[in-house]
Write a structure and sequence with these properties.
The protein is α+β, with helices and mostly antiparallel strands. Helix content is 47%, strand content 23%. The protein has two domains: 309 residues, no CATH class; 200 residues, Helix Hairpins. The chain has a nine-stranded mixed beta sheet with strand order 4-7-2-1-19-18-13-16-15, covered by helices on one side. Strands 9-8-10-17-14 form a five-stranded antiparallel beta sheet. Strands 3-6-5 form a three-stranded antiparallel beta sheet, with no helix packed on it. The radius of gyration is 44 Å and the shape is elongated. The N and C termini lie close together (8 Å).
Length: 568
């Protein structure tokens, strides 16, 4: 069988980290898009990898940070899931543009895959990269044991069969992915040290051509149909059932109070099963993504603490009793308030008439105010028109004054001589000059008072608006007095409804909840909360497979690729 080059496979799988949401469709090269009579096994395998990579990537949210380390562990495995080779690809993010980046790694055969920057080794696992302000992308190999082991088992018509013997067979096939969680951490649960599994989530996928596979099911996951293929994606959480184990006492108490404890099969969290009817079996590679930060996007705000739930329920019961009594007092008070409001409404009948008269009078005043504002506005417009008409006279007199000044300055004339000379040059009489000066003076007077006139217009408009506001308030007063009595009656009815509802909530809700909780050992719930917090801590602390410096924001994911099963 022809194998793809290691670099091409890693390049194809790396695209998964960029996909952040489930879209329900896969926009990649599909197997049916290739000419079947010309496609090679390598091309078919590469196309399948691209589709599976995107399909699995759509199920996760990728880690990102301005600075830090992102580690992707690529595992090449046989069709049975046995590990054959491990290649680790690292990205050192250089958010601050540092010239030197410090790292730690247990990898061998280290190679810079996107640049020429060199590194030097230090003590232990420390290495130093001459980054030159850029990110560093490097890969290497390791023979370290994986934190999650994968085993694939195949069954044909209920009988286990080796993968190489399954090629070309027909019948009912079961492909089972079993995951072994090997990563544990120590936590204190109930005052004792307990081993907690790192909460890995595993997403496995396979492409099943519909010309060979039908009646496809998956134990826990989804099936995406694309053209002539079914893309099957399964989910598993190895070790989670043991991490969050609930005692039999708690399960029995929950069952006694109506809970269906058979809905969740905890054993199914450690495997995925794909079943189908098959004709002429063949299977391209499968891909599995392993993620350690199952709870990374779950924000519980603070550690869960159930140690005081019993005492808090007792307080809640007492508070509900007090609240029920208080609601009864509210009924009595609202009855008195309603009676008083009815008396007030009766006495307000005369006030309503007065409010109506006030509103009518304010309406007349409002109409007059708008008339005043309109008159002032017309006056302002008339004065403005006058200024426009006087503008030529004003400008002409200004030019005359300028000419007189030039004559006086140029020829040493007195003002009287200069005025006479300019008048003679322009053919003006004394009466015409006096008339021109008078018009210019009127223009100057209007211009000097233009600002006051605009203020007057604005004030008239504001007065009209204020009168409208008062008018609106008068009508509001009239409407408010009308609805006062109705509101008092509604308050009385509502307080009675509240009282009845509080009694029912107390009797059917709080009291039953307290009774159900009283049958559960409080210590079991406290232990459960401690376990949940320990699992979250274990997921947050697992951030590297091949090493990272202390304090560096690092993340890791694993991608396992199994070989294809084909006829020779």
């Amino acid at each position: 069988m022809k194998r793809m080059k290691r670099g091409n496979w890693i390049k194809g799988v790396a695209a998964a980290a960029a996909v952040v949401t489930v879209t329900g469709c896969v926009g990649a090269v599909l197997l049916e898009d290739l000419p079947v009579d010309k496609v090679s096994a390598a091309e078919k395998e590469e196309a399948a990898e691209e589709v599976l990579t995107e399909a699995l990537g759509q199920q996760i949210v990728s880690h990102s940070a301005e600075s830090g380390k992102e580690e992707t562990v690529y595992v090449i495995a046989g069709a049975d899931g046995a590990t054959r080779n491990i290649i680790v690809s690292n990205q050192l993010k250089n958010g601050e543009g540092a010239q030197v980046l410090e790292d730690e790694t247990t990898l061998t055969d280290i190679e810079n895959v996107k640049g020429t920057q060199a590194y030097t080794t230090g003590s232990g696992d420390a290495i130093t990269w001459q980054a030159g302000g850029s990110d560093i992308f490097y890969q290497g190999t390791t023979d370290a044991e994986l934190p999650v082991g994968l085993t694939l088992t195949y069954y044909l018509d209920g009988v286990e069969i080796k993968p190489e013997e399954l090629a070309g067979k027909s019948g009912h096939v079961v492909i089972r992915f079993d995951y072994e969680n090997r990563a544990k951490q120590t936590a204190v649960i109930g005052g004792e040290e307990t081993e907690i599994y790192v909460p890995f989530a595993v997403i496995s996928g396979a492409i099943l051509p519909l010309e060979h596979f039908s009646s496809i099911t998956v134990s826990s996951g989804k099936i995406l149909t694309e053209g002539n293929n079914a893309i099957v994606v399964g989910f598993a959480f190895p070790g989670l059932a043991e991490n969050l184990s609930i005692s039999d006492d708690v399960k029995d108490t929950l069952a006694e109070n109506g809970a269906d404890t058979e809905k969740v099969d905890v054993d199914s969290l450690d495997y995925v099963e794909i079943e189908a009817d098959v004709v002429d079996f063949e299977l391209e590679m499968t891909l599995s993504m392993v993620l350690p930060d199952l709870f990374s996007d779950i924000d519980l705000g603070a550690d869960i603490d159930l140690s005081g739930v019993s005492d808090q329920l007792d307080t809640l019961k007492d508070s509900m009793t007090l609240l029920s009594d208080s609601s009864e007092q509210l009924v009595d008070g609202s009855e008195q308030l309603a009676a008083g409001a009815r008396d007030l409404a009766a006495g307000a009948a005369g006030a309503k008439d007065g409010a109506y008269a006030l509103a009518a009078g304010m309406q007349q005043l409002s109409d007059g105010g708008r008339a005043v504002a309109g008159g002032v506005g017309q006056l302002a417009e008339t004065l403005n028109d006058m200024m426009i008409q006087l503008t030529p006279a004003h400008d002409g007199y200004a030019q005359f004054e300028q000419a007189v000044g030039q004559m006086m300055a140029g020829y040493g004339m007195s003002k009287e001589q200069a005025v006479a000379s300019v008048m003679q040059a322009q053919g003006m009489t004394q009466n015409e000059l006096t008339y021109l000066a008078t018009l210019s003076g009127i223009y100057d007077g209007l211009a000097a008072n233009a600002g006051d006139m605009m203020t007057l217009v604005q004030g008239a408009n504001e007065l009209s608006g204020g009168i409208d506001t008062v008018n609106q308030g008068a009508w509001t007063l009239y409407d408010g007095l009308t609805t006062l009595s109705d509101g008092a009656n509604l308050l009385e009815d509502g307080s009675r409804t509240l009282y009845d509802g509080m009694r029912q909530f107390d009797e059917e809700g709080i009291q039953e909840l307290a009774a159900a909780f009283s049958g559960v050992d409080n210590g079991n719930l406290v232990e459960f909360s401690e376990r949940l917090n320990a699992v979250m801590d274990a997921g947050e602390s697992y951030r590297t497979f091949s090493g990272a410096p202390e304090g560096v924001d690092s993340s890791v994911k694993f991608i396992i690729r199994t070989e294809a099963i084909r006829k020779d």
